[in-house]
Write a structure and sequence with these properties.
binds phosphoric acid mono(formamide)ester, four-stranded parallel beta sheet, five-stranded parallel beta sheet, Rossmann fold, alpha/beta, binds norvaline, about 300 residues, 2 domains, 9 strands
């Protein structure tokens, strides 16, 4: 039997996505130390790139549920010496109950999933970051209720986070306004598949009109550090500042997956201001990951 993987938000139905959000909220509000549904289970975590939130949330989540998490770096495993992904996936999955990967190439995760006998979770690739969206959507639901029919605004790079916001708009049925420089638009096929929910704007202020939620991310993602200077020039008119927030609804929220660069993609005034919910959003990575682990790994 093929295991259930979590590679993309499009792997979820809208009921499943909403179910995970409500479960994450319940797990957050009623922590029961005796509830250990993953007792004795092991999650392998393969990180080709750095992480604070993703690593800690999966590791703490497995501990809370009575299981264990193994941190594996390609530097210290045979993956870094070129062992085929198919062999690695078969071997690792024969010893653990789930595998989470953070990789440069999205294809690494899909290849792993093809050969793994246990669930594979995408902990970020160059194309998508679906786990972050579970936490972002949980945060919105907690503070404002269901996001269906609302207007979310993405400002900045058409990157992995932007792609997962496009997927979330499809599954949860909200409108997504995007303001990105012409050379940094999201992938055309991902946009096309989302249909009329996605609308493009020339400036952050134009995109922010009617916004219920404004989101941005770093201008240079992990692996793009050498492009930093060039990107600072390309994105200079794409900072989320007080003027952008003023164009949104007065009760609009501001989110950022973190880590953030104050003074670049967002002003300090906004990210540290009253509309910003970055710290509940970060904490919710833990609760959302636990809901996801329970959904994928619970065997009863
Ligand atoms: N937002 C996020 O994924 O953070 P980390 O890179 O710290 O895991
Ligand atoms: N777009 C960022 C997200 C980090 C959580 C990156 O890929 O580096």
């Amino acid at each position: 039997m093929n295991p259930r993987h979590f590679i993309s938000l499009l792997d979820l139905t809208s009921d499943e996505f909403r179910g995970l959000i409500h479960r994450a909220i319940a797990l957050k509000n009623h922590r029961d130390p005796n509830y250990q549904p993953l007792k004795g289970q092991v999650l392998a975590m393969i990180f080709e790139k750095s992480s604070t939130r993703t690593r800690i949330s999966f590791e703490a989540g497995m501990s809370h549920f009575g299981g264990n998490a193994l941190f594996l770096s390609p530097r210290d495993t045979q993956l870094g010496r070129g062992e085929p992904l198919s062999d690695s996936a078969k071997v690792i999955s024969s010893m653990v109950d789930g595998i989470m990967l953070r990789t440069n190439s999205h294809e690494t995760v899909t290849t792993f999933a093809k050969y793994s006998s246990v669930p594979v979770i995408n902990g970020l690739t160059d194309e998508q970051h679906p786990c972050q969206l579970l936490a972002d959507m949980q945060t919105y639901f907690e503070l404002r209720g269901d996001i269906q029919g609302k207007t979310v605004v993405w400002i900045g790079d058409g990157n992995n986070m932007c792609h997962s916001y496009i997927h979330a708009a499809t599954v949860l049925d909200f409108t997504l306004h995007i303001a990105s420089p012409a050379a940094y638009m999201p992938d055309a096929a991902i946009v096309a598949a989302a249909g009329e929910r996605i609308k493009f704007f020339d400036t952050p202020i134009a995109a922010a009109h009617n916004a219920d939620l404004i989101v941005t991310d770093v201008w240079a993602s992990m692996g793009q550090e050498e492009e930093q200077k060039q990107r600072e020039i390309a994105f200079k008119d794409y900072q989320v500042d007080a003027k952008v927030m003023q164009a949104a609804h007065p009760d609009a929220l501001f989110m950022h997956c973190l880590p953030a660069h104050r003074g670049e993609e967002v002003s300090a005034e906004v990210i540290d201001g009253v509309q910003s919910v970055i710290f509940p959003e970060a904490e919710n990575r833990l609760h959302a990951q636990k809901a996801l682990l329970e959904f994928l790994l619970c065997k009863q």
